[in-house]
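Collaborator request, handled under Task 6.
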Amino acid sequence: MDYDPDLLRAFIAVHETGGFTRAGKRLHLSQSAVSHQIRRLEEQAGTALLKRTTRSLTLTEDGEEFLRHAEQILRAQDALAIRFQRSAVAGAVRFGVPESYVGDRLPPMLARFSRQFPAVRLDATVDTYLTLRDQIDAGLLDLAVTLSLDEDPASPLLRRTRFVWAAGAGFDVAAHAPLPLALAPRPCLHREVATRALEEAGREWRLAFTSLSQQGLRAAVKAGLAITAILQEDLEPGIVEIDAEAGLPPLPQASFRLLWSASGRTPAAQALAGQLIESCDAASA
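Structure tokens returned to the collaborator:
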């Protein structure tokens, strides 16, 4: 069955804004038009996607799964539109990416982009999440991958992730002693996530190891000097996730998203964004 992209966008807008009226404002439609679109979509799907009460609007279990597929379909359509745009692409793209996103797949993808768009000069910068946001706001970058703790409909979703507590294998969390942490200096999103969670839970902590280097922090964790907060996909041999039995507070979900500067949506930057979205879809397939 083919799903109308307009219906999928309406469904995602209702989920992200939390209501039909707010979704209608985003989509420039009336509340009744959005409600009609959701009703048509549920008829096509053959199941309820939203749970409605007088006070709240939430996804059903089927709605949660449908949301993931809808986001993937729309990302693929956006990537296809960007990838095969007819205009000649030239110019420069100032692109920022955090170290945690680089991995093994990003450099080959950037190399493919350069081969496919030889008239585009790609200037890539690797920095922290917060620094990249500042550079976007200052107009020093056109496009950046950033990590967000919030649902931000203005920033295209690349992939979802979550923070976890991580320690060296065999690390013993002492119940009453201040928790030793390995963290980067401020400003650092990982540091903010970890310390906020502990302070809200009333758990004492101390800074046992600090480094600007991710490699240095991981070495300290592996050696058993401290624990840290990292993304789940950054776990590696010698570093394990500490589960709730250790008495640590839960850490938040997060998502990698694309962030644009005010003047960054050039054809060249749009082409790079399309390749980034396309590579994420291929990796999750």
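The cover message to the collaborator said: "The chain has a mean pLDDT of 88. The chain is about 45% helix and 20% strand. Please let us know whether this matches your experimental observations."
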